[in-house]
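so i finally got all the pieces together for this one. its four components total, 396 residues if u count the protein bits. some of the lines might not be protein, just check the labels. i wanna see the whole assembly predicted at once instead of chain by chain like last time, that was a mess tbh
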Amino acid sequence: MARSGRRPGESGARERIAESARAAFGEFGFDGATIRIIATGAGVDPALVHHYFGSKQRLFLSVMSLPFNAEFLKRQLLAPGLTGVGERLVRFFLGVWDEQPSVRPILTGIVRSAMTEPDAALLLRDFLGRQGLFQLVAAIAPDRAELRAVLVGSQLIGLAMARYIVGLEPLASADPEQLVASIGPAIERYLTGDLGAA
Amino acid sequence: MARSGRRPGESGARERIAESARAAFGEFGFDGATIRIIATGAGVDPALVHHYFGSKQRLFLSVMSLPFNAEFLKRQLLAPGLTGVGERLVRFFLGVWDEQPSVRPILTGIVRSAMTEPDAALLLRDFLGRQGLFQLVAAIAPDRAELRAVLVGSQLIGLAMARYIVGLEPLASADPEQLVASIGPAIERYLTGDLGAA
DNA sequence: CGGGGAATTCATCATCTGTAGAATTCATCC
DNA sequence: GGATGAATTCTACAGATGATGAATTCCCCG
């Protein structure tokens, strides 16, 4: 008579929860994405979320990790030489946001949550700093690589915020190649140019 | 015996609530800043907040308006001519964040809240777009002023996020003049340079 | 000196939040 | 085929949150 208990067949509930969580974190941020919203999105009882992931924080950290491959990026961006590396980086960055439906909620979620959640801010710092961009920048310009990396990071994160989160026009609906041509040279200067006195 | 009722003398409660609200919104964002936190910060009962401002949203909008004076900025930045206008804009921008203790929580609050609160996103769009930066940019470069304005805005907002909200090193503790020298030319190119094909 | 209105607080509501524990159902292994 | 354990749900709690309405106290004007 009761409807509790295990359901027959393979359910894949855990993966459905993870996907629903990514979507919710991406749309509403850490605070706005409630466990009940996530559970409903996965067609599942809220308690099951805790059963699998323990707490909301652990759920966030388990599910929102970025598949960032610095080695691959280095090869991809530096193969044609140094000239045009700024354009290529912007093109790659926009491509990830525009064309990869699985990665986008992770990125928006991290950015949205980093404003208020220290854990998310840590993820963002890692991506922009030592664990992420820095690896790439150090291979291009060893001198003052930290400063160059965060300058590039600040422009890229500002671009993402304006285009994808705040929806600032005409940035939000600009043609990607227009942005590559506009922003690429600025990035390239951060990467290889003269940054002024220390 | 009861402690309710009006208190003797001038209290300035309304202004204390406004200030406490600015501080709380700046530190915790719209969602994190609860009415109780705001009331406690003002030394006041939570109901008084509603008495004066109606709802939390109206409180936010009443209290978080930016004193942005485009005319003053134009005169200030364009007086010495066009050369170096990028550096001057970055210097002015950093000066507002670094040196004006009253404006800073408003800025952090808008940025923090814009990630999840549509009203705050609107404020941010206004500041970066038609009502704000665009006024300045149009006076400098009439051609493609909208695009130039949002490009400048994206770099400035990214800088603010990295330096003041996420605390990304070495950006967070960099010397302002170092940042003026590093970022100013990029801004200047957005303002006056060639942005590539349309 | 009396009354109207503003300031302030109290008590409270309905709702939502993350989380925990117990109960129920199924799959699998011996 | 009974036992063990995992999957899933139910019920519930304790706390926080935004909001409301009534009560209380004071100021000011006549």
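The longest helix of chain B spans residues 145-165.
Residues 70-192 of chain B form a domain with the Tetracycline Repressor; domain 2 fold (CATH 1.10.357.10).
anyway lmk what u think
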